[in-house]
C-alpha cells in the first residue's frame, strides 16, 4: 500500500495519532526514522543485533503508540529511548563488541561485508575510545552516545531516557571527563 503524500509530510505526533485508526500509517514513522536508528544501534551493538533491536523498537512503539505524548511532534527521542532500553538488555553484547574493537581495531560490520557509512565508524580506528567507552557506566554511556552518535539535544536525551535535563548534563560532563582522561592516559603510553 502506498502512503498518501499528505501523510508523509505531517509531524510524527499526528502520524502516531492517525495510526490508532489506520495502523498501516505507522509504516511512515518506520520509513522516516529506521535508517538513522539502525545506524546508531549498529554502532552500539554491531550489525548482527541491529536488525533485531530496530525491529523490536518499532514493534514496542507500535504496541504503545496509544500512550505517546502527542504534544511532542518529533518521535525520535521516544524511539531512541525504547532502543536504549533494548540495548541495555544486551549490555554483554555491547561490552563484547567494544572489547573486540580494542583487540582487533575492526568494526564487525567490516568483517561481515556490510557498510557502515564513511565517518561513522569512529571505534574501528580508535581503540582507545572503545576502551574508554567500556569503562563508562551504562547510564553515562547512553547519554554520551545519544548526544554524540544520535545527535539528540540535551532535552531530547532527557525525554528519551525519562530523566531531568540536569541529569543529562551531569552524566554527559562526567562521561566526557572520563573519556578525556582515558584518552590522555592512552596518549602518554
Task: List descriptors.
189 residues, 11 helices, transcription, RNA_pol_sigma70_r4_t2, transcription regulation, RNA polymerase sigma factor, RNA_pol_sigma-70-like
Explain the overall architecture.
The chain has helices at 5-8, 12-19, 26-45, 47-63, 76-88, 91-104, 108-112, 127-135, 138-148, 154-161, 165-188. By secondary structure, it is an all-alpha fold. Helix 3 runs antiparallel to helix 4 (47-63), helix 9 (138-148) crosses helix 11 (165-188) and helix 10 packs across helix 11 (165-188). The protein is globular and about 60 Å long.
Spans where pLDDT lies below 50 across 5 or more residues: 111-121
- Round the mean pLDDT to the nearest integer and report it: 85
Beta percentage is under 5%
Radius of gyration: 18 Å
In DSSP terms (H or I, runs of 4 or more residues), the helix count works out at: 11
* Percent in helix: over 70%
H/E series: HHHHHHHHHHH
Class from helix and strand fractions: mainly alpha
What is the rounded distance between the termini?
Answer: 59 Å
Characterize the biggest β-sheet.
none
How many β-strand stretches? Answer: 0
General shape: globular
Protein name: RNA polymerase sigma factor
Domain RNA polymerase sigma factor 70 region 4 type: 129-178
InterPro entries: RNA_pol_sigma-70-like, RNA_pol_sigma-70_dom, RNA_pol_sigma70_r2, RNA_pol_sigma70_r4_t2, RNA_pol_sigma_r2, RNA_pol_sigma_r3/r4-like, WH-like_DNA-bd_sf
Keywords: Sigma factor, Transcription, Transcription regulation
Give a short summary of the structure.
The protein is globular and about 60 Å long. It is an all-alpha fold.
Amino acid at each position: 500500500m502506498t502512503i498518501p503524500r499528505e501523510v508523509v509530510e505531517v509531524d510524527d505526533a499526528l502520524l502516531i495519532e492517525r495510526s490508532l485508526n489506520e495502523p498501516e500509517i505507522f509504516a511512515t514513522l518506520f520509513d522516516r526514522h529506521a535508517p538513522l536508528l539502525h545506524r546508531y544501534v549498529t554502532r552500539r551493538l554491531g550489525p548482527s543485533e541491529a536488525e533485531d533491536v530496530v525491529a523490536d523498537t518499532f514493534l514496542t512503539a507500535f504496541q504503545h503508540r496509544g500512550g505517546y505524548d502527542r504534544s511532542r511532534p518529533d518521535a525520535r527521542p521516544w524511539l531512541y529511548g525504547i532502543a536504549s532500553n533494548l540495548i541495555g538488555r544486551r549490555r554483554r553484547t555491547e561490552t563484547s563488541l567494544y572489547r573486540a574493537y580494542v583487540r582487533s581495531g575492526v568494526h564487525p560490520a567490516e568483517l561481515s561485508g556490510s557498510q557502515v557509512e564513511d565517518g561513522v565508524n569512529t571505534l574501528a580506528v580508535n581503540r582507545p575510545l572503545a576502551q574508554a567507552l567500556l569503562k563508562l557506566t551504562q547510564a553515562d554511556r547512553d547519554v554520551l552516545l545519544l548526544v554524540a552518535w544520535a545527535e539528540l539535544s540535551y532535552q531530547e536525551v532527557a525525554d528519551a531516557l525519562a530523566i531531568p535535563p540536569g541529569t543529562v548534563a551531569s552524566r554527559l560532563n562526567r562521561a566526557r571527563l572520563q573519556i578525556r582522561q582515558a584518552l590522555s592516559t592512552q596518549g602518554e603510553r
